[in-house]
Every structure is written in C-alpha cells, then in structure tokens.
Amino acid sequence: MSAALVPLAPLLLVAATAGLLIVLDLLPPREGKGHLGVVALAGVVAALAGALTLWGREGRAFGGMLLLDNFAVFLDVVICYAAALVLLLSMDYLRRNGMESGEYYILVLLATLGMMLMAQAADLIVIFLALELMSLSLYVLAGLFRGRLTSAESSMKYFLLGAFATGFFVYGIALIYGATGTTALDRIAAASGGLQRDPLLLIGFGLLLVGFGFKISSVPFHMWVPDVYEGAPTSVTALIATGSKAAGFAALLRVLFSTFKVAQPDWALLLWVVAVLTMTLGNVIAIAQSNLKRMLAYSSIAHVGYMLVGVVAGGALGAGGVLFYLLMYTFTTVGAFGAILLLERGRQEAVELDDYAGLAARHPLLALTLALFLLSLVGMPPTAGFAGKFYVFGAAIRSGYIWLAVIAVLNSAVAAYYYLRVVVYMYMREAEGVPTRPAPSFAGRLALGVALWGVFQLGLMPAPVLDLAQAAVAPLLR
Amino acid sequence: MVPESYYTALSAILFTIGVVGVLVRRNPLVIFMSIELMLNAANLALVAFGHRAGAADAQVLVFFIMTVAAAEVAVGLAIIVTIFRLQRRLSVDELSIMRW
Amino acid sequence: MSTTVWLIPFFPLLGTLLNALFGRWIGRHAHWIAVPSNGLSFLASCAVFLSVGRGETFTGDLFPWIQAGAFKTAVTALVDPLSAVMLLVVTGVGFLIHVYSVGYMHGDPGYARFFTYLNLFVFSMVMLVLAGNFLVLYVFWEAVGLCSYLLIGFWYQRKAAADAGKKAFIVNRVGDFGFGLGVMYLWVALGTLDYSEVFAKVGTLSPETATVIALLLFAGACGKSAQLPLHTWLPDAMEGPTPVSALIHAATMVTAGIYLVARSHVLFERSGVALDVVAWVGGLTALFAATIGLAQTDIKRVLAYSTISQLGYMFAGVGVGAYAAAIFHLVTHAFFKALLFLGAGSVIHGLGGEQDLRKMGGLAPRMVTTTVTFFVGAAGLAGLPPLAGFFSKDEILASAYHAGRPWLWALLLLGAFLTAVYISRAFILAFRGAPRMSQEVARHIHESPRVMTAPLGILALLTAVAGVAIGIPSAHGTAFARFLSPVFPLAEEAGHAGLSALTLLVLSVIAAVAGVLLAWLIYDSRPVNAEAIGRPRNWLHALLLRKYYVDELYDFLFVRPLVRVAGFCARAFDLGFVDGIVNGVGRLVVGWAGAMRLVQTGYVMNYALATLLGAVVIVAFFLSR
Q: Bridge-partner residues for C74, per DSSP?
C-alpha cells in the first residue's frame, strides 16, 4: 500500500470487504448466507485493529478532503465496535426471521463505511456524501423485513424525514459556500472569523445543525426515532442507535469545535436549551412506554441530551467526556438491544414489558446480563454508565454550568424509574402464559459477552480510556 | 446580465416551495418530489455562488448532489413500492401504526 | 520484582473467579483450584520476601484508577520489609488453613462457595497489605470486611450465623465510619493519600490535626481488631466455620488494625496523644478480654476472647513505640492462635460438632496429634519459654516498662497471668480428666485425617522454633527487629532505670507458670464438676459469664432506641411525608408522560413540521445574536 493511503487503511478495509461481499453474494450457495456475515465481521475487526495501530498518526488524503487524527481514530474504533457487535448479533437473528440475505451484510458494511467517512471527513462535501452513504444504507436496512408493515413503515418514515433533513443540510452547505467561497472545514474556519455577522453564514450554520440534529436525534428533530427504532429489525435498530449516532456526533463535534469555534458562546447557549429539552422529553415519554424497543428509543434520545451536556461544557473535559460517553453508550446500548433480540416468546420477538415477567427465575444469566446493561444506562457504579455520566456532568460543573448539571442529574433520577421497572418485572413478577426463552445463538451470546466486558472495563478502569478520549479531542481544540 | 442575487432569491423561493410541499401533500411520491425541489434549490444557489467566486468547485459539488439525489430516488421508489404492495394504498397518513 | 509482586494477588483472584464462575460444575473438586492458587501466591510472597531481604523495595502502579480534576489515585503497591512480613504471614498461614479446610469442610454442600470466599479473602487481604495509599487500603479494608461477613454467615440457614454476620458488619461500620472520615480529613489536610507523600508531609500538620486524624483512623482499627469498645462482634463471629475463625478472626484480618497503626506510626507519633490512647485501649482490652476468657464454656469463644486480649497486647506494644515487637507478636500470634483454632476445629470435628468444654474431657489418648499440637499452641499462648509467644509477649512487656509506663506493664503482666490460667483451663477441660460426652458421641471420637493434622504439625513447629530463631533479644534488638529496621528505626538501647531486663523476664515467666499451676490446681488436681462450670457462683463470676453485660448495655443504649426511632420514621415520617411527596411527584411525571407521548402522533407531516419549526427557531436564534 502506498504511503498516501495509510491514513485511509480502516476505510479501505471496510470498502474492500464490502466489494468482496458483493462478489461472494453472486456465488453459490443461493440460500444460507451466513458465511458472508463471518467475512463482514472479519473485515470490520480488521478495520478496528487497523484503526488502533494508526493511533497517534496524522495525515491527509485526497487533496485534504479526508484526514486522519486521533479524533478520527477514536471514533473509527467506536463505530467498528458497534458494527462488529451488530454483525455478531445479526447472524442468527436473520436466519430465525427467515431474512438472511447477502444484501444485509453489504449494506451494514456500506453504512459503517459512511459512518467512518464522517469521522474522517475534512470537507462539508465529504460529510454530505458520507451522511448519504450511511443514511441510504440504513433506510433500506430498516425496511429489511419486507413482509412486515411496521418495518416498511419505519423505513418510509426514516427515509422521508431523513431526506427532508438532508434538504436543509445541503442548503446550509450552499449558503456557507456562498458566504465563504469554500467547503473545506479549516478554510471556512479561517474565513468565518472575519464575517461572523454575515447572515448567509449564520443561516447556513443553523441549517447544518438541523441536519446534524436529525442524525443525533436531538429535540425537535427526534420525532422519527421512536417509530423507526420500534419498527426496524432489532439488529438494525442497534446500529442506528449507536453507529449512526456516533458518526453524527463525530461530524458535529468537528464542525462545532474546529470550524465554528468563534461562535462557541452562541451555539453553546443554543445547545444548552436543546440538551435540557432533549433529555427531559426523552426521559418523561419513556416512562409511558410498555414496548421495550420504543422505551429504549426514548431513552436513547435522553442519552443524546446527556452527551450534549458535554458538548456545551466544551474543552478537553467536556468533548473528551462525550467521546467516552459514546464508547460506553455503544457497548451498553448494543448489549441492551442484543438481549432483547435474543429473546422470543412463541414465534414473536419479546418486546413487551409483560414478556419479561419472571425471566430471572428461568434464565438467570440472561436476565442478569440485561439487568446490568440497564443499570449501566441508569448510571450505577461500577458500570460504565456511571463513569460516563460522572465525566460529562463533572465537565459541565467545571465549566460553570451548574444548573445544566443539576437538571441532568434530576433527569437521571427520573430515568432510573423506567429502567428499573424492567428489572422489577424480570426479578419480582411471576411469568404467565407462553414462556419467553432465549434463542440458542452462540454469536449472540458472544456479542453480549463482549459488550458486558466493555461495560465493566470502562466502569472499573475508566481513567485510561478517558485519557485517550481527551487526547483524541486535542486536535479539535488546537 | 441578471444579477446574482436574483438567483439566490429564486433558490430561496424554490426551497420554500419544496418545504411547504413536504408539509401539505399526502402522497409519498409528491412529498418526495418536493424534497428533490429542495435539493435543486441548493444546486441553483451553489451554481450562482460558484459563478460569483469564479471557481469550478461549486459546480462539481452540484454533480455530487445530483448523483446522491438519483440514489435517493432509487431507494425511495423501492420503499414506496414495498409499501404499496403491502397496503394497496399510498398515503402517508396511513403510515401511523406506530405512534405515541 | 514488579511482576512477582502482582502475581501475589493475581493467583487468589484467579482462583476466586474460577470457583465463582464454574463452582457449580467443579463442586467438591474446588480445592484443586483454591489450594494451588494460594500456594503459588505463597511462593511469590517468598520470592518477594527474599528480594526485600536483599534490601530492595518496590513501589509501583498497576493502573491509574480514579481521575477527577486534581484528585488522582492509582492502584499502587508498596513492598517494604513490613508488608513483606505481612504477605508471608497472610499467604503462608492462609495456605495451611486452605489445606486444613479440605478435610474440615469435606462434604459441605457449599464447598465451592467456601473456597471462593476464602480465596477472595486472601486476595483482598493481600491487596490490603500491598496497598500503597490510603484509598486502596480503605477499599480492601472494606473488602476483607465483606469476606468476613460472607464467611461468618457461611451457614446462613442458621439464624445465629446470619445474625453474627450482620453484627460483625454493623459493628465494623461504626469504626469504618471513623476510618473513612480520617482518610477524607487526611486528603483535605495534605492533598494526597500516598503513603510516602503523606508521611513525608506529616511534619506540616499541627499536632491537634494529627491527633484528630490518627484517632479517626484508630476508630477503624478498633473495629477491625475488636478492641474496646467495639469488641463485641468477634466472639459472635465464631459462628463461622472454624478454618475461617482461624484465618480471618485470629491470624490475619483482625490484625489489620495493628498493621494500620504501625504503617502510619509517623502520623501517630506526630500526635503523641493518639499513641497514648492506643496504648491504653490496648492494655485495658488485653486485661478485660482475658478475664472474660476465664469463664467461657465454648472452646471457640475462649479462643475468641483470647484473640481480643492478644490484639490488645499488640496495640499496647504499638502504643509504646515498640512497633517491631508488636509486629513480631502479630506473627507469632498468627502461628499459635491459628494452631489453637485449627486444633479446636479438629476436636469439634472429632466430636461431631460439639463445642462445649463441659461435654469434652479425656480426649488425649484418642486424638494424640491434636493433643500434642494443641498443647504446644497453648504453651505458646501462655508464654512459656522457649516458645515463640514467650519472646514476643515479653518483648512488649519490657518495652512498656522501659517506655516509662509501669502501670501499663502491670496491667499486661496481670493479663499474662490470666492468659496462662484460661488457656490451661481450656486445655485441661478438653483433653484431660474423665470423658464427659455422651456414649454415642464417645464411640465416634476419631483423630482427624492427615490433611488436617499436617497443618497442625507445621504450625506447632513454627510456634516452637520461631521465637528462638528470630526473637532472641540482643544488644541490637532481635533479628526480626533488625529486618524491619528500614521501616521502624531501632530504638536506642539506653540504660534503663528501675528493674533490669532480666528481672522483667523472670517476672513474666513466674506469672505464666503461676497461671498454669493455678489452673492445674482448680481443674486437674481433682475431678471436675461439669455442672458447676457454667453456673454463676457469685456476682463476679456472673459478670464474667455475661461478658460484663456489654452486649446488653449496647442493646439498651443503641439498638432498642434506634429500632424505636426507625420504626417511628418508617411509619409517620417516611410513609406519610416522604412517600407522599415522592408519590406525588411520581404521579405528576407519569401524568406528563401520558400527555406528552400524544405529541408523537405517528404522522410524517407532524414530524416534518417539528423539523421545520426547529430549523426556523435555530436560524432565528443565530440571526438575533
């Protein structure tokens, strides 16, 4: 490989694997595409390893359109973890639902490629293209269960609203180009210093935030989240909840901290309000849900609110805290969705709260695993969730946002109610009717094991990873 | 020579028409066309700004956006067809099994 | 050396994990994991001890642990002669007791669980000793407390065992509360918790501050080492399996308090007052517990009070600045008290669970090994020369006298006399005289299996030779004190006024021998009336039998009022007021939730409208700035 391509190694690995899968999909056997999943997983794991070896290196490629720095590497790692865990979860899940197909793995890889491109993009055009690559793949994946109306509906809603938000995003790019004459992030930063009050630039920046807000699902751009999370296949939901969110935050953090640094007081104030609305709305509505996937959807909205607290706080502590939070959130959320995905009642996926009554008595290990993921979402020590919240809220206090931290802590207390309700159902209710049982899937259990390892690794020894996260945001804050 | 601001204004008008179209129409196909209108408004603005700056990069960007729009059309139509097969009707108001 | 140091806690941790995860399948083979893991840990300790003997020390971080602003703490290990000695005792005695447990716990349904806890304890105790700062020390201080709780209540089906576990935990909490405050105060006062930095900066503390911190730390030590007034949990802890009593409640965990005070002796010396408190609490406890030991009828309770008393000796030694002597007594005590407990366990095993001294007697011919080894242990405890206990106890007594504390010395000497009495009494009642057990039990008396008697033999050997080997006083202190001299500088051998060292030696021998003779006169020279032993003969005897009514006093002073207040709070305040507010808020939030979810109409139009409104608000916001 030529030296110029080294910074792109993780991207190229994923892209090459996707290409390989397209070829392999054409070859026999026509039924049973499980081996494609294994190849895809190998590609993602290789990309993960490749990204790790690139830590500490800096570089640019394609005329400065793509770049590699510690920030990109950290997010590549987060995204690859998400993709690898989702692939592990998918293998048996698809077979059980009779939807095993080659496209699924190809699309997951392409979505992953898009996410990683967003982390490495140094130009608004690349961010746009990466966003679209990711989104288009996810629209299709959401509608994978063609025979189910819920799946089709979620795909349709995701698509229409996503395309709508993209319209705003593209128009924002056009306006920013109009104001600064460039789409490269660093040149926009240089140009925008002088014309801060230019209305074209301000409107363009606002419209960019609409696009990002949609991807990270902050209020009021969150409306699609519950419907899509509920209707999409659970493995796809897990990918949307973790990978695409991480990618959205990657581009958002880069744009906010390195490109629009001059406007920091303004956007921090805006995001303060958005953060409060996002976490409160997510947590309050989650209380009223009885469908676990929908409940976790609202919970994921609330967690975006917590992460925005870190963005508002800013600096190495705040932005580094967000990266730490993303990593811990990836492990925890994939784990929680993974546990749901493994459970079925009769022929149906077990998504209703009642399906979980008395689970601990019959399947203690799986119930305990799910309970631990939920406790991590609550933020109980010694799980990763505690460390994540601790750093993000601590950063807010350090930056003087005392009230924001207070509201966030109150929100966490409210959130405990609906997470612990699931635990109560599992441990203190008697089961009725058809028993809920876990599907016999080794890969799925392996995924849960890895996620659980992550939850405790980050919970018990958070300091080393936090150091890495803070080193990762250093290039943005220069 | 038409001033550049006219193009900008036209693009803003097109964008607004697109947004309103998304909000008021019920047929997914028409909604989808409205979204395309929003993208094309952005294209128009880019071409105008690029002309002013005398640089080719904005024009290149327009091609990217058109390509992406084409890809969106492919995916969108596929989804619409799937829905139509399941429901035999085509209105986004029908798509509300999942709510609250 | 660094790798070897980390291996010491690694093996027991590995053993814990293996037995915890796979115990269900390993079952009665659990010792094949637990015993070797502890043995390997002991070997690693030996290696570390040898390198320390060559003059090396080690400080190192395993990983940075907590990082919150200016507060940074790593999991740090510190190996110096003091921790090397402690490591050797913990893993060595621990290993012997692990071996013993293979026989003692044979056939117990919780076999794997037992070894899981036991390994977890060894891990926690090793980490406690290795800790290089107060926070890590505190964490593992609590961890050994947890293990203690789990193991006391090991037979949780028995109410007495479960209650004893709870009592140990709660009484320890009282002391640990002080300990926690002490650690926090230390952080506030000095801005660091690292041993080396703390002890280097102690000079900057005012003596008053040092006193407060030292006394708070000592509160924790009092709880863990069962000193007055927090001693009540240890006798009850005898509800646990006997190997546990030997390992945790005699040889290792309860000595953590002595370790803490000795480790932070710089701090205590800075205060001065705190050292006096330590010395007097220790001396009083030594005498107090010894008197109770005189009247107890349960063989394990006799040993429990003896442990409290001996720990008092150690505190008295630390309090008068004889740190090396106190640690030496800690080591010898670990040997002979573990030996006594294991011997008692062997007796209990042979008698099918009988612990009452009144129903024993005449065991000597039937259990020869146990009798001989128990005798060695008893003689060691009584302080008969030339056994280890004689040298270590005498060292403390002499130090107390030479430190200008003749009253403390007298107290301790009286205690030594009583010690000889109660342990001789226990030995005589158990092994000599006529058998007093039922025919049924008598027929089944048997010597314990080899796996149990072998550890007895080794411990007896250690008790016999440790004193002569490393404890003979010379002009430059004992060999043991010289080994510890990097941590505790050797005292100047100044000319002492008053009685000479030799006189003191003779006096303590006389006290011990007199005690043995008295016990022989009362219990062995004529047949024992078993009925009379447990019945109060006069008010003094009743006082001792009821352990000075301390439990009753605490029950009256703390437990009952607390239960009453708690009951009131639960009913009136909690149910009425707090629950009212909480439920009110809860209902409010749930009500909102029900209303707010309706915003989510399911219609794409509405969602798009929300997006548009958001866009308008954001753009308007930026334009208005």
A: C64
